[in-house]
Amino acid sequence: MVLALPVYATGLLLLLLFAVRWPLFPLAGGGARRLVLPVLTLALGLAAGQARLVRAAARDELGRDYVRTALAKGLDPREVLQGHVLPNAAAPALALFGVQLGSLLGGAVLTETVFALNGLGRYAVLAVAHRDYPALQGVILCFTVGSLAASLLVDLACAALDPRPRE
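Below the sequence we write its predicted structure tokens.
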């Protein structure tokens, strides 16, 4: 269900539930407590996709020959899961995270607007409203460089996690 909701709808729903209906978090001010709902808004959609992918990758790995061999040798199933299955299932999840970074940056623009936070996303919205194109170009450049750097780091981490021997 969380995957189907847009970021702004998730943010508004969390505000309605946890700041208005059950006032656990402040609407304004409050220091670090004020950041819980925006972080949760961005993380819910990403975590739902990651959980589905890790589950599918782990199920795929459980059917492999090396897992059956390890279990036949008498290894504890928990050790097999933690030592063999999950590390091999982590590479696709990490690759998906690299793809999700772009939506994370786009979601930050909407999240900062919904929660009235000051950041690059809100600055971009104000730059559009005031037709300040050089400022908007600067924000887009920052997002692009950040996204490219993060994608490079994700690719390097995927290469390091790859269990196949290097030639």
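The helical segments are 7-21, 36-62, 65-72, 77-114, 120-129, 133-161.
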